[in-house]
Amino acid sequence: SITLSHQVAGGLGLLERENAAIMNESLRPLCAQTVRAFAKALDNLGFRCPFFLTKNDGTLISASRAKNLPVLAFSSGPTNSIRGAHFLTLVTDGVVIDLGGTTSDAGYIQNGYPRQASSEVRVAGVSVNFTMPDTLSIGLGGGSHVEFDDAGNATVGPLSVGYKLEMADGAYIFDGIRLTASDVAVASGHACAAPLREYVEREEERKGTQGTCEQRLTTVGRARVDAAWQRIQCMVTDLIDVVKGSNDNVTVILVGGGSILVDTSSVPAGVARFVTHKDSDVANAVGAALGQIGFVLERNYELPDNDGELRRKFLDEFEEEARSRCEKAGALKSTIAIHGPIELRMGYMPGFRYRVTYFAVGDVDDSAQIDLHHEDDDALDLFYGGGADEDEATGGAAGLGSPQAKRVPSPEPLLAEEDPMLCGVPPATELEKNAE
Asked: 128: helix, coil or strand?
C-alpha cells in the first residue's frame, strides 16, 4: 500500500509531511485489524449497516477510509469528550477535562468546537503537521496509584490499576490491595464522591461485606488522605492553567467517570465555575454519536499587489467551494457552518502569496440516497467524502503538494507544480509516463 503525504498532511513543512505519511502507513495494518474487529462485533450483534469512526477534529470518517487514513482518527477520544461536553452543558467556550480510569485529558472548546493545535504537533516525540486537537493528558484517573514517602508527601499516578479497579488487585473500596485516587475521593468525605460511595455500599450489601470499605480506608490515616486529596486538586488546577493559555477566568466542564476526583465546592483561582451534567460519564459516547460531516479546504493564491478587493473575491470563492464540497460529502445544506478563513503568508517567496484554510461542518443529510445495507467501500466513500474526491474531501483536502490542487483564479495562480514542497519532483503526468 502507499500513503501520499497530501492525503494526511495539508500543512507546510517537508519533514513533518514525511513523518505524517510514514506514521500513517505504519498504522494501517493495525487499523485494518481494528476495523475488522469492529465490523465483526457489530455483525454478531445483528447490525447490518455501515459504521463510522470519529476523526481528530470531531467529524465523521467512514470505516473504509479510516483503514487507509488512520492518523486522521487515532486521537479522536478527547475530541469526542469535548463535543459531548458542549452538547450536554451548552457551554460554548471553556476548558473540558475528561477524567477516566488512568488519565485526564483536557482541551479547550471554542464556539462549541475543539480548539485545534496551532503550533508544532508532536506524536510520541515525532513532529507532524496533520490536524490534531489541542489537548493535554496527565496520569491522573480513578485508578491511579497513590503512594507516600517517609515525610507523608503524596504521589498520584501515573501508574494505574485501570480496568482492574473493582477486581481483587484493584482499589481498597472494592476490597482490593491497592490504594487509588478513587479511595482517596471516598475517604475524603467530599460530596463529589457521594455517588461512588453509594455504589460501594450497595456492592457491600449485595456481597454481605458491610463496613469493609470503611475499615480499609481507616488504615490509611486522615493526614495521608488529606495530603493525597490536596495533591489531586493541585494536579487538576495545574492542568487547567496550562490548557486555558490566558489569565482569564474560564468555565471548566468535568466529564468522565473520574470527575469525582475534583472538589467542585472549592473553585481555584483562574476558574469561573465548574460545570457538570448527570450524564457526563458518557460524554465521550455522546460526542461520537453527534455524527456531523466535516470538510477541510486548503487553497493557495497570489496577488499582484496587496489588493484587498481581489483578496476578498478569492476568499468568497473559496468559502463557497468549501460549502459546496461539504454538501457533496453528505452534509445537509441548511446546517452547514463555515469556520475560517485561516490565512498564512507564505514567506521567502516573491509577491503576495497566501495559504488559506476553511473548515465546513454540517449535519448528516438523511435524505441523501445511499444503500445503508450495501457494504461496498467505494459506495460509502462516494457518499462520505472519499472515492474520486478523496484528496479533497473530509480530512484530505487537496492543498500544497497535491497533484490535484485546483488552479486558483487569475492573476497568475499558484499551481501545484509550483509547490515548494515538490521542488525537483516531476509532475504527475511524467511520473505516470515513467511508470509505463
From this structure: strand
Element (H, E) at 235: helix 222-244
Q: How far is CA 4 from the centre of its chain?
A: 23
DSSP string, 81-112: HHHHHHHHH---SEEEEEE-SS-EEEEEEETT
| Residues 183-234: tens digit of each pLDDT | 898 888 886 777 777 777 787 777 776 667 777 777 888 888 899 999 999 9
Helices first, then strands: H and E counts in the chain = 12, 15
The answer to whether 238 touches 271, Cβ cutoff 8 Å, is no
d(CA 196, CA 170): 15
Q: In the numeric block, which cell numbers belong to residue 424?
A: 525537483
**Measured between alpha carbons, how far is 255 from 94 in angstroms, rounded to an integer?**
13
Give which of 251, 273, 387, 276 is closest to 328, Cα–Cα.
387
Cα angle at 241 between 240 and 244, to 5 degrees? 75
Name the percent of the chain in helix, strand, coil, to the closest 5: 40, 20, 35
